[in-house]
Amino acid sequence: MAEIFASKTAEIEEREVINAQISRKLAGECMVLLENDGALPIHTKKVALFGNGARATIKGGTGSGDVNTRNNVNIEQGFQNAGIEVMTTAWLDRQEQNTSAAKAAYVQWMKEEAARKQTSELAVMFDHPYKEPDCEIITINDIDVSETDTAVYVIARNSGEGADRFDEEGDYRLYPHERGNIHLLAEVYDKLIVVLNIGGVMDLSEMRSIAGVNAILLMSQLGNLGGDALLDVLTGKVNPSGKTTDTWAENYMDYPSSAKFSHNESVHDEMYEDGIYVGYRYFDSFGVKPLYCFGYGKSYTDFEIKAGKISVEGNEIQIPVTVKNIGKIYAGKEVVQVYYSAAGGVMEKPYQELAAYQKTKLLAPGETEEIVLKYQAEQMASYSEKEAAWILEKGDYIIRVGNSSASTKVAGVIEVCEDIQTLKAKNLFALDVALNEIHPDAVKLEEKKKEAASYQAEKIIFDTTAIAQKTVVYQGMRKEYHTDKTDKITMQDLLSEKATVEELVAQLSTEELAEFCVGTLRADGGEVVGNASYTVPGAAGDTSSVCKESRGIKNMILADGPAGLRLQPHFKTKKDGTLLPGGEVMGDAYTPFNPNIDEKEVDNYYQYCTAIPIGWALAQSWNTELVEKAGDMVGSEMEQFHVDLWLAPALNIHRNPLCGRNFEYYSEDPYVSGKIAAAMTKGVQKHRGKGTTIKHFAVNNQEDNRYFVNAHVSERALREIYLKGFEIAVREAQPLSIMTSYNLLNGIHTANSHDLIQGMARDEWGFKGVVMTDWFTSQDMPMITGKFKPAYPISASTGCIYAGNDIQMPGCQKNVDDIVEAVKTGKEIDGYKITKADLQFNAANVIRVVARTM
Ligand code: BGC
User: Which of 315, 339, 405, 740 is the most buried (most CB within 10 A)?
Assistant: First the structure.
């Protein structure tokens, strides 16, 4: 009989109530106040509420990141819960009818299409995401009945896995009716507040040009108490303290990657010609003025930030800062940000880069807090492809302090008198095609860096001996493990240190080893992606149970995130524990239970988890402490539902706003991304035996044709931008697991990249956990992967073993067979030759992590 850990009652548990409040508290800090002329906070008793997100509030994006929850407090309910009367229910009803009809038509089409193509509904959903129709037009009558001077207009946009967004109306831009509605409201209401219930940057230039929009609040997507959290901010109960983690451009085409991004040019080859100039690194260095800069966000109060005298202790740079709430009414929190401008040397350097940040405590009006921000000098080094090393080049490093990337003051200058090689590595990612990277005007850029620094009084000379120079030792040939022990070694022997993992692995047959390196695919008709676990329905998969009975090595259960734990909230089993079909899996893919079930013959189980704010929103809180608490909360739900590895956090870089999964990811900046991922990991891993899986490693910045897109990126950009966040997370928090991405990187699938997995993560960063593939990585399944005719082959199962990609998820029999054949015959299969030593190495990594989850 299957082990089932879910709850047998549908009653709300105390844990749900407590966790929802943690999530609400966090959500309050995730919102970014973009504009406010004093209209916020509101003090009204009645509101005219409009917009497609007012009732159909989005709690998180679509796909595997969509957390199934018991309830979703929408914005209309948020107003009602806060005691504010919503006067526009007639309009909201019309809007609901409109969208429900469109949604119902889509769901029907999706089901028929899945049947026609003999594929899963999820595959259809991923390839052809639902696009909501334009909004209902607001009439004078809707306005007349509202009896208030305050209107709130909620713009919602959804996006998700499997498809990129479009620079078109109703997506990146406003729909015509939305535009008309906002114009009208701006004319007739004294106060018009626009709320953005979105998962990624959209065009706001048009909105900003409308006179009469009094405030714009980036609510983002906040999990299941979104409506309540929003009202906390709108009414002033919570003072918004979020800051943008992306640069918001005037025009989409201002982003350097836009012209060629994904479907804008080719979905097969993505040329990273923007190099290291991603986000503010581009806008600041090329003199392009954004609409909202990186790190920006207003508050209901004002702060004064004063930096004290910078000092250097060994290799640590310390910046004392005093923050004072100089407002009279509202308490609030401020985010102090430290940037450095490195002088251009042999290598060119962007105008500035984020070095450290800290959020203050809640400061009452008049209250002051003194903080000291710290970071290590090595952090300012750049990667030289020529030297294959990180080098802190000689020159001036101007330190700037402020509350956004555009509002900083110079706090000091650190002079490095000679080049310091901080880490000697080796080049791992040669380009497979020529890449024409962009470069700023060097003379202008260097002048700009020095402008504000020219009156800087003090310069600190950096003691170059304070940095311990290191050289990476890379793994050599893997050696086969042998043992003389003949008694069957079990997990218990490992835990009691009677035997080593290597000895255990040496006793396993090639077949058993191969099984360890391939997950278990649910064969009984479960949905293809994200619902493959035998034991915890709705979890995305299990690792092998091949030696569960014989040696006590349990299967690990893996469940998605990042906006909470995605499980099936309600399922049914026969009395013998056999799972019955039906229930909610993900988004619109809902299979009804058999209506003729005899309830006396079945057991009902419940797994209600908490939806927390999406990754983008979490990062916008810039509050690592709170994010750690959120991780702690997820960890407690993992304990309750017996999930071992959480398939989150996700931290790919926001290179272009149209990437369909930007909502799951944190930022355009690797430092923020890495810090937030590390905090989340620390929170989850406080729970013994629970681990995170940082994903998608790496360069998963495009969703169209995600299984086959070849990203061509220079090694410097890779290391400084796209891998840096992963490095920070690994070095600071040692997540138990890493998930590789689907795409190719300079011609090699990341899943098959020995240099990425072994060379970078394990050898350079010291990663100790297990690496797994993303779902169906090495399976030729056109029904899942084939919307675009691929220009490259699928990744190889044997390549995963060669690379040290320990588990192929969820795996199939062919994966196992290929591995066994390749090892036994020594034959090259799909381009890779592998040995028993390779296979043992991977299996040992799996078993080591299983031991940590016990
Ligand atoms: C996604 C992963 C997810 C996995 C399991 C894949 O389609 O890319 O992020 O963890 O499915 O659901």
Answer: 740
